[in-house]
């Protein structure tokens, strides 16, 4: 009887997990050069000039030219592939490098799937409560090519063997109001070691260390 109850508990827990609602992601503007795309922070969507290891290819998105929108799935990665670039497994963030002109652009969908992305039941993260298309108008701070202008966080945890796919819809597709423009746009994994303090941050750190040094000197007198 105990074994039967244990099996039932596992089955109920698995069903509850599979029926869990997708989590809602957060999109934050990045001010200044904080997150840089490089081989330790590889692209999952690449317009141009991404620096990726050969073992971690990216999905191409439209580059220069008369571009208005796209709606694409990424390649599929294992959880262990993603964790290889994260200081803490499961601490996934995605940087958006939007090299646009003066015109804003619409972020319509950014989603994460665990399992077959053509099966809606495998959707685990999206931009809205009901995972419908949105019209998030983004005006890029223009941090420079190769640097994140926006950071997407809030992704759920996953196991090393999970098969993970992302979806990115951008511009005037699915009701977006502001077209993608001619600037190259990339989306890349943010690793824990990618944070580069701004000059003001260095100044504050230096001032703090100086104050600690003076305080200790006074205490020794």
Describe, in plain words, how this protein is organized in 3D.
By secondary structure, the chain is an alpha+beta fold. The protein has one domain. Helices cover 20% and strands 28% of the residues. The protein is built from three helices and 13 strands; from the N terminus they run αββββββαβββββββα. It has helices spanning 2-18, 79-83, 199-220; strands at residues 23-24, 26-29, 43-46, 59-60, 69-73, 77-78, 93-98, 105-114, 123-126, 136-138, 150-153, 163-171, 185-190. The protein is globular. The termini are far apart. The model is unreliable at 1-18 and 195-212 (pLDDT under 50).
Task: Present the secondary structure layout.
Blueprint: H1 2-18, E1 23-24, E2 26-29, E3 43-46, E4 59-60, E5 69-73, E6 77-78, H2 79-83, E7 93-98, E8 105-114, E9 123-126, E10 136-138, E11 150-153, E12 163-171, E13 185-190, H3 199-220
Parallel strand pairs: 1-9, 3-4
Antiparallel strand pairs: 2-11, 3-13, 5-12, 6-12, 7-11, 7-13, 8-9, 8-10, 8-12
């Amino acid at each position: 009887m105990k074994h039967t109850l244990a099996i039932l508990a596992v089955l109920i827990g698995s069903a509850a997990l599979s029926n869990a609602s997708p989590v809602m992601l957060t999109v934050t503007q990045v001010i200044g050069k904080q997150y840089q795309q490089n081989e330790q922070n590889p692209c999952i969507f690449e317009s141009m000039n991404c620096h990726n290891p050969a073992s971690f290819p990216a999905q191409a998105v439209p580059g220069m030219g008369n571009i208005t929108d796209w709606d694409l799935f990424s390649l599929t990665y294992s959880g262990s592939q993603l964790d290889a670039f994260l200081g803490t497994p499961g601490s996934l963030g995605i940087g958006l490098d939007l090299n646009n002109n003066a015109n804003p652009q619409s972020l319509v969908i950014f989603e994460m799937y665990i399992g077959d992305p053509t099966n809606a039941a495998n959707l685990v993260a999206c931009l809205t409560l009901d995972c419908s298309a949105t019209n998030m108008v983004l005006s890029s701070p223009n941090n420079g090519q190769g640097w994140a202008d926006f950071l997407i966080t809030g992704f759920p945890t996953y196991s090393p063997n999970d098969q993970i796919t992302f979806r990115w819809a951008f511009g005037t597709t699915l009701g977006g109001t502001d077209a993608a423009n001619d600037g190259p746009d990339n989306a890349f994994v943010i690793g824990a070691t990618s944070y580069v303090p701004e000059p003001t941050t260095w100044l504050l750190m230096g001032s703090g260390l100086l104050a600690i040094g003076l305080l200790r000197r006074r205490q020794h007198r």
